[in-house]
Amino acid sequence: MRILLLAALLAGCAPTVEPVSTSIAPRGPILAVFAHPDDELVVSPAIARAIRDGIPVTMVFATSGDQGPGVTAMAKGAELAAIREKEAMCSAEALGVSDVRFLRLGDGTLADRPQDAASPALRLGAELRAVLASRRYATIITWGPDGGYGHGDHRMVSAMTTQVVQAMGADRPELLYGGIAKGTLPPVEEMQRWATTDPALLTVQAAYDESDLAAVRKAAQCHVTQFDAATRAELPDVFHASIWSGAAHFRPAFAKAGR
After folding, report:
1. Domains with residue ranges and CATH for the chain
2. Beta-carbon neighbour count of residue 182 at 10 Å?
3. How confident is the model over 113-155, as pLDDT tens digits?
4. How far is Cα 29 from Cα 97, in angstroms, rounded to an integer?
């Protein structure tokens, strides 16, 4: 996830959390599957809320973001990946998550010839099955099929997570796609290519409070290689004032049995 924000959006907007009238939070334990360090920020209020409620959360990063580029002058490769993993751990700590796993599949490679036997996509599927075999998760959250703004790694994480879960039995975890309700994108040019979802489909909402938003602000500060100081400071409150508005929103991937 890489965006630029405008401080002007926050003019006159008090960073307070208004109660959400209805909230059906994800059940735990929760497995959160992302493509890169910093992707977690999009749904970070839900993660902070779950931890506050005592729900265990595991965060899995398919790649370590070794291709950047972000705002750093560092060369692409292993050194950048190591730093981004540290940033992810910093963010996880801010949100209260202690179980973080890095699959190190290669930034920008997940959609490369996914049909091949040794493809990063099929390796991702195998890794996810292993994670799911290690614990009984009630909920999985990940990117929707749009990948946020269409990033190939995001789309493949969504597709492979969906493929793994749909093959499970009736007691499979509930799979939730993070979504942005239509009409809530902030008036920032760089965000206009992000996909939106009909609000009627976003039936799961994880309401958050001031303490959760404070954790999100702290998490955003961790991603120094990806955002400049102004963006790190503004991002949580811009999202709070527009996209989130008191809750992180999710769309169930599958209809309930019998429908």
Report:
1. 27-252 (3.40.50.10320)
2. 14
3. 999 999 999 999 999 999 999 999 999 999 999 999 999 999 9
4. 12
